[in-house]
Amino acid sequence: MGVRKRPAEKEQLLVAKGTGAGVVHDEDKHERSDLRGDWGNIAILFFLYLLQGIPIGLAAAIPMMLQNRGASYKQQAEFSFAHWPFSMKLLWAPIVDSLYWSRFGRRKSWLIPTQYLIGLFMLILSLHVNRWLGNSEGDDVASHVAPNIPILTGIFFALNFLAATQDIAVDGWALTMLKRCNVGHASTCNSVGQTAGYFLGYVAFMALESAEFCNSYLRSEPADEGLVTLPGFLWFWGLVFLVTTTLVALLKRESLPSAERGHEESVDLNIKQTYRLLLDIIKMKPILILTAILLTVKIGFAACDAVSSLKLIDAGVPKDKLALLVVPLVPLQIVLPLVISKYTTGPRPMEVYLKAIPYRIALTLLAAAVVWFTPAMIYDHHVPYYYYLILLTNYGLYQIALYSMFVAVMAFFARISDPAVGGTYMTLLNTLSNLGGNWPTTVVLWMVDVLTWRSCTNNEQNDCAGSVEQEACTTGGGKCRIDVDGYYIEIGVCLVYGILWYAWGKHQIRYLQSLPLKAWRVVRLQKAHSS
User: Fold this and answer.
1) How far is 473 from 488, CA to CA, in rounded Å?
2) Which of 58, 227, 243, 256 is 20 to 30 A removed from 314 (C-alpha atoms)?
3) Pair 179, 37: CB distance under 8 Å
4) 5 pLDDT higher than 50
5) Contact present, 93 and 208 (Cβ < 8 Å)
6) What predicted TM-score, i.e. pTM, was given to this entire model?
7) CA-based nearest residue to 233, from 83, 133, 113
């Protein structure tokens, strides 16, 4: 199978048949991104993804509020189950793809009910959330009310379940709402919209809910409460969900895939066929190669991503100040996808991905160097301002590399996904990508102590391996010192791995990019087998 490019002004990727006849498949053409007629669709997608980020951000804010109300870490762990739906949505994505009311729209059949339910949940939650959060204010212990963790967990689990279902529907709709040449912009709408929604639901809410922040920066006269309360915030966004969902239901028509817009005809499948289709997707050779890439690429960055911040806290950097460094990076996270998308809307979005990997590997070394020199920069628990500037610069550069990879791979997912089963296809790829980041994080966190060698300053026989040994060392008047820090061992191992992986992975990625779009079409593959 030969691949050749037309002149740059046409930017078409033509793939000949295996017979060598040189026949061009329409589905393998790539035209320059043409946003005429799609600006409104991009605005709608952006807003839908923004709405999706609101409950995600709120679910991240609740643990902070619970901590202020005296919740135990066991209760925090219980509430963490509220975040699970986005890691489980692959289980019901085939149902979202296969069950719908065709007259109303394949994606709207799920989008509209889920967003109405999110709005109703928020309105109901606004009436009871203060009681369920509990109250630890006042000196009278008898007046304290413990937070109702099971109800809060159930409510926010349901909210995130609905948000995850909305995500499946919007991901699938994006493939047909936009012209084929513009599907790369769907990843931009996703990353920018969801980040903006998360910022509103978490960062903006936490700031405006804080009386201290509002009194210091936003008020001329101090008050006991912030400008925003949680019930008021929930009530407002509940109404926004209901109103905007009604507008989308009435005014936005879901069109069938159109050949004029570069789409392919949709295929109707029942639930059993859709789950079987999911298995067929997983068994496809390109998907198997892509799976290997997604599950292994982030190992090279795992030590930096998972451990560096913890090491900074161990070195004496206040964790609240460390958390605040995220705030100035939020605008960068919103702007970056917009800039990067200019280079990922073409036929080879993963070239950006490949270019970002060496920079990200190098930045892991820079992060390790910052961790190494941090103790020397802190005097008497005082962290100088220039140190925070160094951290912010390092974080900012790392975010550029990270978002370059994220936007590029999302654009690639949008390009190769089969529109006939877009929700399932995209969800599978996103799940693999997320899993590829989660399991290395768990491993490197677990391995830090295993690889760290310690000793007691006044007893060489005590290796301070466990809490008993550490207590014995302290009781005897000594201190446990780190002779070899497992973090730096992991950084070294990840560095070597990352270089070796890049030597292998770049060829695999470029091979996948060279494949015609029909190589990723599982429905067409099934038709060929059945005929």
Assistant:
1) 25
2) 58
3) yes
4) no
5) no
6) 0.62
7) 133
